[in-house]
Write a structure and sequence with these properties.
The structure is a single chain. This protein has 632 residues and is an alpha+beta fold. The protein folds into 3 domains: 10-164 and 246-382, Rossmann fold (3-Layer(aba) Sandwich); 171-245, no CATH class; 391-620, Sandwich (Jelly Rolls). It is built from 10 helices and 30 strands. It has helices at 71-79, 106-118, 134-143, 177-186, 190-194, 196-204, 207-211, 227-238, 276-287, 330-342; strands spanning 10-18, 24-31, 43-50, 57-63, 66-70, 84-89, 123-132, 150-156, 169-170, 173-174, 265-270, 294-299, 310-311, 314-315, 355-360, 373-374, 377-382, 391-397, 403-404, 414-419, 469-472, 480-494, 500-509, 519-529, 548-552, 557-561, 566-572, 598-603, 611-617, 623-624. The strands form 6 sheets. The protein has an 11-stranded mixed beta sheet with strand order 1-2-6-3-7-8-11-12-15-17-30, sandwiched between helices. Helix 2 (106-118) crosses helix 3 (134-143). The chain starts with 9 loop residues before the first strand and ends in an 8-residue tail after the last strand.
Length: 632
C-alpha cells in the first residue's frame, strides 16, 4: 500500500483544549495539504483520543509493509483524502494536563473535545472516531454521553461493555494484566519522565519477582514511586463487588446503550484478545432496536495484531491476516467506512456481511518451518451473532473423565481435588494482552514449559496435576464446528468459605510425527469466584460441604474440531498470573494475609449434573467469506 505523493499536511500542533474543569488536553489537528482554515470548505473529522502519545508510533498501524507507524503519518493518509484528523493525549498523559485516572475521565473529556471540534472553522459538523484498545475505550465512553456531531465509530479491541466482567475483572477475579500495564505505563508517566529518580526507582523494580510476592500492599508495590498509578490499581483490585463504582461512565457501556446515538459502528476483536466479551456484548447492545448498520469482525489474533497470522504457538496461515483477506488493508477499510458515513460516498459493490468470523482449525497439526503448530483456519460470514446455524448443545461431565451428550445417571458421582493457593496452575496462553514481561497470550500446547511464569515441572502436561480435572469426548467421528458462546455449569462444594473454579476448552490433536504426545490447544477459558455464588453485588461465604450451582462463562470461540480430535474441558481452581489467586480464606484476594488449602468438589450425579454448552454446527452449513468480503 503506497500513499499518494502529496505536499505536507497542515498541522495545528499542541492545541490546548480546555475541559469543563479547566484542565487542558494537548491536541494535534491535521488538515489537508494547502488547506486554508476559514476560507476553504469545512471538512468531516476523524478523532482518536489516546494515552499512548498523539505523535508517537502506533504499534499496530501498517503502511508499505512497515509495522508501527507514527500517528502523523496515519493522519496524512486520511487528510490526503479530504478529512481533518485530530489526535489527542488523554488527561495526565504526555502533553496533557491533569492527573491520569484510568478510564474514568474519558467520557466527559471526549464529550468536551467533540464540542470544541464542532466550534472550529475546519469542521463541517460530522465526526467519526477510531482507535485500538484504550482508544476504543475512549470512543465508547464519549458515545455513552450522546455527544454532538458523532456520526460513526470504528472500535478495535475495546470499548468496555462491563469492566467488572471483562477487561478489569472476570466473575469476581481480578485480571492481573492491569498490574503489568500500570507498571509499564507508569514509566512513561509525566512524573517518571520529569523526575529521573522516579524513573530510576521504577526501572530498578523486578516485576516478575513482585508477581511472586502477591498480594501487594499500598506503598509497598512496584508502583509505590508513582502514587496516582498505584492508587487506581488498588482501587480496581479491591473493588471486588459489583457496586456503583463498576457502573461508572467509561467502564460500563451496558448501562448507557439507550443513550448511545443510533450511528454506524464497526466492531473488531479476535478470539485470543482480552476484549472478546466486550466486543460481542457491544454488538448485541448496539444492534437491539436500531437501524444503523453494526458490523462485527472477529479474527484469530492477539490484541491488535490483525496482520500477524499466529497467536502464541498456533499458526493460522496466510488467510488469517486482515490485509488481503478482509480488505486490501486496514487503513483502506477505515477510509471506506469514513467515506461512506462522513462523506456520503455510495456503498461499494462488494458484499457487506454483518459478521466476518475466522473459523480456527482445519490445519495439518504439523510443526512449520518457524516451529509453530499448524492449526489453520478460514473466514466465514454470518447474518448475526451468535451464528444462526449453530445450535446450543450440552456436553456432560462424567466421573470417569468422559464428556458426552448423555446426562449422568449416578446417585453420588463426584470428583475432588485439593487447591493450594501457594501452587496455582500456571497460565499457558489464552485471551490475554499487556502481560509482558510476566505472561503472554495465544494458543499453546497445555504442557508446562520454561517460557511460562510459575511453571515448576517443565515438560509435564497440566493434565498431570492433581488439581486439574480433565473431561474429554471420544475421538470425533466427523468434523464439528463450535461457533458461539461457551457456558459451563458446575455443581460444586468446598470446605472453605471461598474458592475459585476455572474452566478451559481445548482442541486435542491425536499423536503425530511432530507431536508424538499429541497437542492440547487451548481455545478459551473462564473463572468464577465462589463468594459471589448468589449475586455479584455482595460477597457471601460458602457453607462447608453445601452444593452450589455456578456458571462459568469463558469467552466465545469459533473453532473447527476435526475428525479424530477430541473436545476437552479442564476444570481447576486457579489460572495464574492471568487472574489473581483466591486465598480460600474468605478474604479479598487483594488484601489477604491467610492462605488455606481448599478441598474442592465437582458434583457429577443425576441430581447435581455438571456440563458445558457449546454452539455446534456442521462445517458444511457455515458460509465461507469471499475474498475481500468487506468494504475496501
Amino acid at each position: 500500500m503506497t500513499a499518494p505523493e502529496v505536499s505536507p499536511a497542515v498541522l495545528l500542533a499542541d492545541q490546548m483544549v480546555r475541559m469543563r474543569d479547566g484542565v487542558r488536553l494537548a491536541t494535534d489537528v491535521h488538515l489537508p495539504p494547502g488547506y486554508r482554515s476559514g476560507q476553504d470548505a469545512p471538512l468531516p473529522v476523524i478523532l482518536e483520543r489516546t494515552p499512548y502519545g498523539k505523535a508517537e508510533v502506533s504499534r499496530s498501524e501498517q503502511i508499505d509493509g512497515r509495522l508501527g507507524v507514527p500517528r502523523p503519518e496515519v493522519a496524512r493518509y486520511f487528510t490526503a483524502r479530504g478529512f481533518a484528523v485530530v489526535f489527542q493525549d488523554c488527561r495526565g498523559r504526555y502533553g496533557s494536563e491533569g492527573h491520569f485516572t484510568k478510564y474514568l475521565s474519558e467520557g466527559p473529556d471526549g464529550f468536551d473535545t467533540l464540542a470544541w471540534i464542532l466550534q472550529q472553522p475546519w469542521c463541517n459538523g460530522r465526526i467519526g472516531t477510531m482507535g485500538l484498545s484504550y482508544a476504543a475505550h475512549t470512543q465508547m465512553a464519549l458515545a455513552c454521553l450522546n455527544p454532538p456531531g458523532l456520526a460513526c465509530m470504528v472500535l478495535d479491541s475495546g470499548g468496555f461493555s462491563n469492566g467488572y466482567q471483562c477487561g478489569i475483572r472476570q466473575s469476581g477475579a481480578f485480571e492481573l494484566k492491569q498490574a503489568t500495564w500500570a507498571y509499564k505505563q507508569a514509566k512513561l508517566s509525566p512524573a517518571a519522565q520529569q523526575d529521573p529518580l522516579v524513573l530510576a526507582a521504577l526501572e530498578a523494580e523486578d516485576i516478575r519477582q513482585w508477581f511472586m510476592r502477591m498480594p501487594w500492599r499500598p506503598g509497598h508495590s512496584p508502583l509505590a514511586s508513582v502514587p496516582e498509578y498505584e492508587d487506581y490499581l488498588f482501587e480496581q483490585w479491591r473493588a471486588d463487588t459489583f457496586d456503583e463504582s463498576w457502573r461508572q461512565l467509561g467502564i460500563y457501556a451496558q448501562g448507557y446503550y439507550d443513550a448511545i446515538p443510533d450511528i454506524p459502528v464497526a466492531l473488531m476483536s479476535s478470539w485470543y484478545d482480552a476484549y472478546v466479551r466486550t466486543t460481542l456484548e457491544n454488538y448485541a447492545g448496539l444492534t437491539q432496536g436500531r437501524r444503523s448498520p453494526v458490523r462485527l469482525i472477529m479474527g484469530p489474533w492477539l490484541h491488535g495484531d490483525r496482520n500477524t497470522t499466529h497467536s502464541g504457538d498456533a499458526e493460522f496461515g496466510p488467510r488469517a491476516a486482515f490485509d488481503g483477506n478482509l480488505a486490501r488493508h486496514w487503513l483502506g477499510f477505515r477510509l471506506a467506512w469514513f467515506q461512506r458515513w462522513l462523506q456520503d460516498a455510495p456503498a461499494g459493490a462488494a458484499p457487506d456481511p454483518v459478521a466476518r468470523l475466522f473459523l480456527m482449525g482445519g490445519g495439518s497439526g504439523a510443526r512449520d518451518a518457524q516451529g509453530r503448530f499448524d492449526h489453520g483456519g478460514a473466514w466465514i460470514q454470518a447474518d448475526a451473532w451468535p451464528v444462526p446455524q449453530a445450535r446450543a448443545t450440552a456436553f456432560y461431565l462424567h466421573a470417569d473423565g468422559r464428556l458426552d451428550q448423555r446426562a449422568p445417571t449416578g446417585e453420588a458421582d463426584r470428583l475432588r481435588y485439593q487447591y493450594d493457593p501457594r501452587n496455582p496452575v500456571p497460565t499457558i496462553g489464552g485471551a490475554l494482552t499487556s502481560g509482558q514481561p510476566v505472561f503472554e497470550g495465544g494458543g499453546f500446547d497445555q504442557r508446562e514449559d520454561a517460557r511460562f511464569f510459575g511453571v515448576r515441572q517443565p515438560g509435564l502436561p497440566l493434565a498431570a496435576r492433581d488439581d486439574v480435572l480433565v473431561f474429554q469426548t471420544e475421538p470425533l467421528p466427523e468434523d464439528l464446528a463450535v461457533a458461539g458462546p461457551v457456558t459451563v455449569r458446575l455443581h460444586i462444594s468446598s470446605d472453605c468459605p471461598d474458592t475459585d473454579f476455572t474452566a478451559k476448552l481445548i482442541d486435542v490433536y491425536p499423536p503425530s510425527a511432530d507431536y508424538p504426545q499429541g497437542y492440547a490447544l487451548n481455545l478459551t477459558d473462564g473463572i468464577f469466584r465462589c463468594r459471589f455464588h448468589e449475586t455479584w453485588d455482595e460477597a457471601r461465604p460458602l457453607a462447608p460441604g453445601k452444593v452450589y450451582e455456578i456458571t462459568i462463562e469463558p469467552f466465545a470461540t469459533c473453532n473447527l474440531f476435526q475428525r479424530g480430535h477430541r473436545i476437552r474441558l479442564d476444570i481447576s481452581s486457579s489460572n495464574f498470573p492471568k487472574y489473581d489467586v483466591n486465598p480460600n480464606s474468605g478474604e479479598s484476594a487483594a488484601d489477604a494475609r491467610e492462605k488455606r488449602i481448599a478441598l474442592n468438589t465437582v458434583h457429577l450425579s443425576a441430581a447435581h449434573p455438571s456440563s458445558v454448552t457449546l454452539c455446534v454446527a456442521a462445517p458444511r452449513d457455515l458460509t465461507p467469506l469471499p475474498a475481500h468480503g468487506a468494504v475496501t
